[in-house]
Fold this sequence. Notes:
- By secondary structure, the protein is of the alpha/beta class.
- It contains eight helices and eight strands, in the order H-H-E-E-E-H-E-H-E-H-E-H-E-H-E-H.
- Helix 3 crosses helix 8 and helix 4 crosses helix 5.
- The chain is globular and about 45 Å long.
- The model is unreliable at 300-304 (pLDDT under 50).
Amino acid sequence: MRDITLPLPVARTVLRPIFRGILNSRLPWQWQRRLMEIGSVAQLVPSGTTIDRIRLGGRPAERITATAKPVGAVLYLHGGGYAVGSAATHRSLTARLAHETGSAVYVLDYRLAPEHPFPAALDDAEAAFLELVDTKGYRPDQIALSGDSAGGGLSMATAQRLIAGHGHTPAALGLIAPWTDPNRIPERAADLVINRMWSRACAAAYLGGGDSSDPGYAPLTGVLVGLPPTYVQVDVDELLHGQCGDLVAALRAAGVHVRFTESVGLWHVSQLQASLVAPAAAALSELAAFLREALQPVDIRDLG
């Protein structure tokens, strides 16, 4: 990996004003999106990464691989409050996942709010998963769903819809600080990356004229029984820390196998800066190991 190791205090000092400037509810969404695209250039992509631009579920997408014969697939749904973010802004993270899982990582550019409110993003994610099954040759249990923040909530909502509507259970859910109930107002004003005003603007943009009680919008309120093994990562200083803890408790109560790690000293979706910050890279490696185990289970015959 071509990494630059920054001390955590330096990284926090550099990143705080950047996020404050970009994720600003007073800025038009198009400006936020453009600034995020520009900033993503600093997040390095490992050498040996192959990126193929494709269509998936009727939307632009990227297929990222790091080996000639990837095993299984990860459908990755990026974060950004359902209003910003893209395959490009998350390319460093998803490329590392491809290297460390040995799987093909499909990154979907689902439709964004407010131009395309709920359930547009959910419809796109569902269509993408179904195309992987129907035309790409994967079984549902050969595909993991993963995502960060809003993309984490979208991953969970997609799994719920696939199970209920199609009988398809993904191999696993890998969730980085998932936003699973946009109805909940954060108690704190801000963390290093996101702030309450921006979060509420995103929630309203995504909901549009929809029903806020719809579990597709707030999957934490939906059916949790039957979800696949799930890994939730969050930092203790995030606005979403409390919500992630509630999600883990609810999943465990529903009988879902859950792994939960809480970092200290990082920030919201620090995994995006894995090429710059060693602890963020370590967290992403743990997620990759979880997904790899789900997608490449050990045959008992291999144990001797």
